[in-house]
């Protein structure tokens, strides 16, 4: 099956949204915890969290300021802090439900049955049910003029993860804590490890 | 287990690289096909491809100009075109091997046994063994001064995918074509679908 540029541009809008969202491959599944300056909590599922670097430890995510997670972006700008909480298979439905259009004064924690947790004096809320989560300090955002989105960059401050998932070399076995992955807009998947491969070298 | 900022900064460098690379969650697995202006082909595995938007159809990836995929970035700047090819479970080892430090005049296609394929008059090479692949026209790169990486943004031009994987609503069942996902630096995973969830609405 071959779709040309013209064919893509003429697709029905919803069909095209599903199609194009499938192309990047599997995506990360994370809940972003924030609060506003009055302490009202907010939680939003995001599939665009991406590793930016380990030295310093940086994480990025793409935000669409005019779509649902806009309260998240506003809270990050107002307070400078947020949490990232991996979604596991036990909380997929609650996590997905955070994408509904709740008002700014409604907390997605209360609405979905996920539980706020405050750890190590960090002011943004964590998700108690998440098994790998970290505190993030906002660094900067870069506006992507090409489509009006924002790349939000943060530094990883404090990491909370189940002991047993950390292997000897520092790799975290996120499959063992049931972390899920997303494809397209709305499909959730468990994983089964195939292999870990050694650092690739050119044969002599 | 709780790692503070200080604890993270004092970790052994390799341990820390594995640890921090695990935090974003599951990553996409794609091969980037390019050629230089003399027609020498290049292929590099990248785990940072990310959906940026469907209208227009845009895709991003993070490149580290001073690490292995630097030839890829140079070729994109020189020619303005590249291909993105999803990695499936049949080609995991060859795909991973493209991350070795080959010289600029050595093609990772030849070195790993993956096959070049030219489709619809597009000048960058596709991977014949990939079952979902698309032609991309370079749009721009944004320098992330915070750690010297580049966000490379491209427009999706031409899509090639197996017919049977496209569902009625446009969603592509990438699990059915054995697309894999990556965790950390070097762990490859198959997936098993849990559920597709409807567009979330606030209960009345």
Descriptors for this entry?
three-stranded antiparallel β-sheet; alpha+beta; 204 residues; Split_barrel_FMN-bd (chains A, B); homodimer; oxidoreductase (chains A, B); 5 helices; Pnp Oxidase, Chain A; seven-stranded antiparallel β-sheet; oxidoreductase activity (chains A, B); FMN (chains A, B)
Q: Can you describe what's shown?
A:
The structure is a homodimer of 204-residue chains. Helices cover 17% and strands 38% of the residues of chain A. Chain A is an alpha+beta fold. Chain A has a 7-stranded antiparallel β-sheet with strand order 4-3-7-10-11-6-5. A 3-stranded antiparallel β-sheet of chain A has the order 2-12-13, with no helix packed on it. The longest helix of chain A is centred in the middle third of the chain and has 10 residues, at 70-79. Chain A has helices at 5-9, 13-21, 70-79, 92-97, 108-112, and strands at 2-3, 27-28, 30-35, 41-46, 50-54, 57-63, 81-86, 116-117, 126-127, 132-144, 149-161, 181-183, 187-196. The first copy, chain A, is built from 5 helices and 13 strands. In chain A, a hairpin with a 4-residue loop joins strand 10 (132-144) and strand 11. The mean pLDDT of chain A is 96. Chain A has one domain: Electron Transport, Fmn-binding Protein, Chain A (Pnp Oxidase, Chain A), CATH 2.30.110. Chains A and B meet through strand 1, helix 2, strand 2, strand 5 and strand 6 of A and strand 1, helix 2, strand 2, strand 5 and strand 6 of B. Chains A, B: Belongs to the flavoredoxin family. Chains A, B: GO terms for molecular function: oxidoreductase activity. Chains A, B: It holds the Pfam family Flavin_Reduct. Chains A, B: Residues 31-164 form the Flavin reductase like domain. Chains A, B: Its cofactor is FMN.
């Amino acid at each position: 099956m071959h779709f040309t540029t013209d064919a893509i541009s003429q697709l029905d809008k919803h069909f095209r949204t599903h199609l194009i969202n499938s192309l990047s491959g599997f995506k990360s599944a994370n809940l972003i915890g924030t609060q506003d300056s009055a302490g009202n909590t907010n939680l939003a599922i995001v599939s665009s969290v991406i590793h930016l670097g380990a030295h310093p430890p940086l994480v990025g995510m793409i935000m669409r300021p005019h779509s649902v997670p806009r309260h998240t972006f506003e809270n990050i700008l107002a307070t400078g802090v947020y949490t990232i909480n991996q979604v596991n298979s036990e909380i997929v439905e609650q996590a997905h439900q955070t994408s509904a259009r709740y008002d700014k004064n409604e907390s997605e924690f209360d609405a979905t049955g996920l539980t706020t947790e405050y750890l190590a004096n960090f002011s943004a809320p964590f998700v108690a049910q998440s098994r790998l989560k970290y505190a993030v300090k906002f660094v900067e955002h870069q506006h992507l003029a090409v489509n009006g989105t924002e790349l939000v960059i943060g530094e990883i401050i404090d990491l909370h993860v189940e002991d047993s998932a950390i292997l000897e070399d520092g790799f975290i076995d996120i499959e063992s804590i049931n972390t899920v992955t997303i494809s397209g807009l709305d499909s959730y998947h468990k994983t089964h490890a195939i292999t870990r491969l050694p650092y690739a070298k050119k044969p002599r």
